[in-house]
Amino acid sequence: MIGIKAIGTYLPEARTSNFDRMNKFGMTESFVKHKIGFTEVAIKAPEQETSDLCVKAWEDLQQNHPVTPYDIDCVIVCTQNPDGKGLPHTSAILHEKLSLPLSCAVFDISLGCSGYVYGLSVIKSFMEENEFKCGLLFTADPYSKVMNNDDKKTATLFGDGATVTLLDDKPVFECGKFVFGSDGCKKEGIIVKEDGQLYMNGRAVFTFTVRVVPDNIRDMLKKNS
User: Fold this and answer.
1) Among 90, 107, 153, 220, which residue's CB has the most CB atoms within a 10 Å radius?
2) Tens of pLDDT along 97-112?
3) Lowest mean pLDDT among 19-23, 104-108, 141-145, 209-213
4) Which of 169, 201, 163 is nearest to 185 (CA)?
5) Alpha-carbon distance 71 to 99, whole Å?
6) What domains can you pick out in the chain, each with its CATH number?
7) Taking the alpha carbons of 181, 185, 192, 13 in that order, is the dihedral positive or negative?
8) Cα angle 69, 129, 99; round to 5
9) To which H or E segment does residue 135 belong?
10) Could you give the CA distance from residue 141 to residue 150 in angstroms, rounded to a whole number?
11) Residue from 129, 172, 178 nearest 4 by CA
């Protein structure tokens, strides 16, 4: 049985304070605390790439759950903001940086908010089908690469960071049954347009969250009862 063994995380040290932008965006301290919900966002260094964030998450994982690179059977990187122009794929770049064996399977998937759930299902199934014993699921999205710092809707919410989830055949946490769904008609709710900048229809995203997600949660709980 494949499941979660441990999780490593990384947030860049640099921060952008939402309090410092209250005048710029016409926000109050109460709005920052109670509407946005957090006071600062993490921002990567200009020279850091997506794979660099993944390496930092890997180093965090290694502190409490040491893993020999040679034992890694597969790696999936979930990101919508890959290294460079996206070719070669970020997982291949990460393969070199972590000195993984040639027998290790690596590939990327491109998803945002739902990426961890999809990624967890994909890597679990992939490992079980191929009788792999040890795999890594990375999620990393440096949104500062596509951020318009003058856009209140995105600049106050989106930051940079990475996680790595270690999965093996002796897990601490089991994976239950998943629930999935899609609505392509709302595809432009969060979008990077031709100018290379991130845009979000905040009202549409909020409406989806309060109307659709609760039913998804109930379906998931029912499916796993």
Assistant:
1) 90
2) 999 999 999 999 999 8
3) 19-23
4) 201
5) 11
6) 3-174 (3.40.47.10), 176-225 (no CATH)
7) negative
8) 15
9) strand 134-140
10) 20
11) 172
